[in-house]
Amino acid sequence: MLAMRFASSFFSLVMLLTMPFLFVSCATTADTDIPVPEGYEVVRLPIMDGAILKPKGWYFRHFGTQNSYVYRITKEDSSETNGFLTGFSITIAPEVSKVTHQKPSEYANTVLRDYPKLAIVSKGSGCTYDSGQGSAEQQEWIVDQRVNVFGSNIVCRVGITTMAVDRIDLLVVIVFGTPPERMGDKQANL
Length: 190
Hints:
By secondary structure, the protein is an alpha+beta fold. Helix content is 17%, strand content 43%.
């Protein structure tokens, strides 16, 4: 399956471009050579045969659906809920057109348009680059979203990045969240 073979290298590229504070290794060996700064620990990424750095004391969760793989690092324990206030999730959807009947780049627009939001803080202009597996389209939005999580109904700042590679039928969606006290202005620490 081309999409799954490519997902590992694309995932590495995604992480290096969008999260400079984390280093990802998608090495195929059991051991990792990720340099671990103080306060972080290495977490293996099942299915991707990779690893990522996670702040110590934070939570890692991974799960899959019939059509996607999700990796989540959060400050709060999200194992009992599907939400979080601080952290990020990465959803990798290979063969997205078989489910959505849209090219990945078209479905990325649908994801952004339909994402539950109170207000759009900013929209990135989007960019296209050569991913090594074809042209990749990247879009970035920051939105304010009302969420009911951990018994509270609050507004959070959410960063959403989509990366679509139509040639290999792959969509990656990264969602960053931060609570109200860290929102600040447009330059919130996401």
